[in-house]
Amino acid sequence: MKYCPQCANLLVYDSKIARNSCPCGYVHWNSPTPVVATLVLYTKDNLLPYNLPDQPDYGLLLVQRGIEPQKSGWCFPAGYINQYEEPTDAAKREVREETGIEIEIQQILSSRRVPNPHVNQTVTFYLANPIGGLLQHGDDAQNAKIFSLHNHPSLCFSTHQETLDAWKRSYFASR
Ligand SMILES: [Zn+2]
To answer: Is 141:65 a contact under the CB 8 Å cutoff?
Structure first.
């Protein structure tokens, strides 16, 4: 934001508070926008419903992006939180809209800043189990697919890939 929404003066950077502000008292807080993303894990216990070529013990639900940024890249189902929406409800809704799958949230995996100076977002990552639904892509996903956890495309966002790598290390270290 360049101009004050209260008095239309040019906003100036105030180094004391590390934010743009206006002599009228307006401060542009520019807080990051929260995003949710979900690692949906299929296991033998929650019955992989599809015949995958290598019959894996673990499956991972990914979506192929239909829009920029990273159009055609694969990542976790993810999206913005609606007004007054619980973050966990947003995570469930995004998985449902993009893949048709219903989930149960297990835990928070991480919360990360998007490491891009042009993107002012933080992403909260959840781990979830599938509990129903029918796999079909929708919303802004051009494809949705269950991959073997050990044989899947690289994720197109570094925060997604790093969260997956860290979770795999701790999950399989205890197994
Ligand atoms: Zn002002």
So the answer is: yes
